[in-house]
Amino acid sequence: MSRIAVIGAAGRTGRLVAQQARAAGHHGTAITRQDADPRVPGSLRGLLDGHDAVVSALGAAGRGPTDVYSAGTAAIAAADDPRTHRAVVGPSVRGR
Q1: pTM of the predicted model as reported, rounded to 2 decimal places
Q2: Which of 16, 23, 47, 60 could form a disulfide with 66 if both were Cys (CB 3.0 to 4.6 A apart)?
Q3: Which domain of life is it from (predicted)?
């Protein structure tokens, strides 16, 4: 059983990822914007500790320009401990 942190777990994709992880017998930790805003540097620090994998299911509301993907990826990289060799997955989805 792996411990998987799902960032953006309140969105459509994040909810599905968390459900599938639990159904497969993994322990999933749901991380939402209420827990940490990935656009704020350092907000994810400590939340990824103890996890074997991180799934970034970040999404943006609306269709306009956004930095949530680039800022979120930077926040994940800053919060990750390079000594863990943890898998980081970011499904690429955009749409309704």
Answers
A1: 0.83
A2: 60
A3: Bacteria
